[in-house]
Specification:
alpha/beta; seven-stranded mixed sheet; elongated; single chain; Rossmann fold; 11 strands; 2 domains; 400 residues; Nonspecific Lipid-transfer Protein, Chain A
């Protein structure tokens, strides 16, 4: 049959390039090993129609086949991710359909709110299972490299608040406040008066509850609010893991809004994921397509060069840029390990499809950061044109 010959040619092509610890089992009992050593991953094809996912093994196709149950996959998730990337890279041409395409989306308040709620409002219990106790859902900071996740997340928050020199009595706006960890820490340890905003109803409810439990109701105000609707002036502004939802075309407007909210002598920090493609393209081989469809609808990643340009266009001057790519690879790896360790509990909280989406997403993100497909940059900025005497001489204050 036609498909048999095509499959055999594809398998032979993969074998010539690399010996993979992969076993392929077909619905008719046929079995193929791609290497000499014992397989670490087994893929079962339940019917002939599912072969198309394998013969064009983009990360979008393989991811869809897995989460939709078109292919059955056994193995540890890290090995599954490595095998998937090997199949894609050995089969597809990087400059082909699944190259790093940039796909701009239309961003409106309604669409952005829907995208945020799709991703973050799975359930608070779902996130509690695999995040740290403070439920910090952004890149941690491993100062020495051997910290546990909870310690590294607190160090990340302190690293940010130290970078922007938060002082007792400062007003601080946290754009995309999550479950409130940064705002609570800024009030408790640094004496700031904080406003945290989110579009996630679940985050809003739990963050307010945590503020009340901490006795900070008068010092931390959590709001269900779009950043475009915020008014007032703030001494310090933080945006952690939020601007990925803004859209590349809207970055100048986003930073203009940030500038309008920042006090003349204030400092702000933008902490977010960036693409390493200079044309603002997605992850290679359809990885971005999978994430947009199943994980982050309408998410867009700019290159750090685009971020700095948009920041300047918005009237802000970048003072410090720090690349935390290694830190996010480790963070996502620890999240993926937690997810695997708590798989049975998580399956009781979400359906099979959602479980599979998040399982491959977390491990896949760790791989993507490790491969330099994406990165994480913290940018400290202030209003452009400030007197130079107000600017720090060095970064020493960040590490004292």
């Amino acid at each position: 049959m036609f498909w048999e010959k095509k499959l055999e040619n594809w398998i032979d092509s993969i074998r010539r390039q690399s010996a993979l610890p992969l076993r392929l089992q077909l619905w008719n009992g046929q079995q193929f090993d791609f290497g000499q050593r014992a397989p670490e991953v087994t893929v079962r094809v339940p019917h002939a129609a599912a072969l198309s996912y394998l013969l064009t093994p983009s990360l979008a196709n393989l991811g869809k086949a897995y989460v939709e149950g078109k292919l059955e996959v056994e193995g540890r998730v890290n090995e599954i991710i490595q095998i998937a990337n090997a199949l894609a890279s050995h089969t597809l041409k990087p400059e082909g359909k699944f190259a790093r395409l940039a796909r701009p989306f239309i961003h409106t308040r309604k669409k952005d709110a829907e995208a945020i709620q799709y991703h973050y409002d799975v359930s608070n219990d779902f996130y509690k299972v695999w995040l740290d106790d403070n439920m910090v859902y952004s890149c941690a900071y491993f100062e020495n490299g051997d910290e546990d996740l909870a310690t590294a997340q607190l160090k990340k928050i302190d690293h940010i608040l130290t970078k922007i020199q938060v002082r007792p009595g400062d007003t601080l706006l946290d754009i995309g406040c999550g479950w409130g960890a940064l705002a609570i820490r800024a009030a408790q340890k640094y004496g700031a008066k904080c406003v945290g905003i989110t579009l996630s109803k679940n985050q809003y409810a739990l963050a307010r509850e945590r503020v009340e439990q901490a006795g900070l109701t008068g010092r931390v105000d959590i709001r269900l609010q779009d950043y475009r609707d915020v008014t007032g002036t703030y001494d310090r502004i933080t945006s952690v893991g939020m601007f990925e939802h803004v859209g590349v075309r809207h970055l100048p407007m986003y930073f203009t809004k940030m500038r309008s909210l920042l006090a003349d002598d204030g400092f702000a920090m933008n902490h977010g994921i960036t693409t390493t493609d200079v044309d603002n393209g997605e992850a290679a081989f359809g990885g971005g397509e999978f994430i947009e469809k199943y994980v982050f609808p309408h998410g867009e990643l700019p290159h750090i060069g685009q971020v700095l340009r948009a920041m300047q266009e918005g009237g802000l001057e970048a003072l410090d840029v720090e690349n935390l790519r290694r830190h996010y690879a480790r963070t996502c790896g620890l999240w993926a390990d937690n997810f695997e360790a708590q798989a049975d509990r998580i399956k009781g909280l979400v359906d099979d499809k959602r479980f599979r989406i998040w399982r491959v997403y977390l491990a896949g993100c760790s791989y993507a950061f490790a491969q330099d497909w994406v990165s994480l940059n913290q940018v400290v900025c202030t209003k452009a044109g400030r007197d130079i005497s107000a600017l720090p001489w060095s970064r020493r204050y960040m590490y004292q």
